[in-house]
Amino acid sequence: MLILEATVFNAWYRDDATKADIWFKRAVLLNQIKPYLRMRAQIALYCAHRQFDEALKEYETALVVVQQLPTPQFREYQASWIKWREEIEQRKNQNRATIQAASQ
Q1: Is the pLDDT of residue 71 over 80?
Q2: pLDDT tens across 83-93, in order?
Q3: Into how many domains does the chain fold?
Q4: Which pairs with CB-CB distance under 8 Å and at least 24 residues apart come from 66-75?
Q5: What share of the chain is helix, strand, coil (3-state, %, to 5)?
Q6: 30, 21 Cβ separation under 8 angstroms
Q7: Does the pLDDT at position 9 exceed 80?
Q8: Residues 6+ positions from 38 with CB-CB distance below 8 Å
Q9: Which residues form the domain of 22?
Q10: Cα separation of 64 and 67, whole Å?
Q11: For the whole model, what pTM was predicted?
């Protein structure tokens, strides 16, 4: 689980896809990790690689999983997951603007 946190940290907070990939490749027994944690790491990786459409697709799938968590856990995660979607959209729009500015 800590390896996935290192993946998220490098992908999302440092925006370093290379290091995030290295950490993710170190993760073993991914099938034994809670799905929403695994999906969170994958979403962060997609964002670091500027694959925002894929990140949003994975996000929607992960949100369904999060919504199926026991109620106390779900309440804790729901607000942060909704906010995270807004942040992904914001990064997607910033990336699009950067690409457009570079092409002019």
Answers
A1: no
A2: 999 999 999 99
A3: 1
A4: 66/36, 69/36
A5: 85, 0, 15
A6: no
A7: yes
A8: 4, 30
A9: 2-103
A10: 5
A11: 0.89
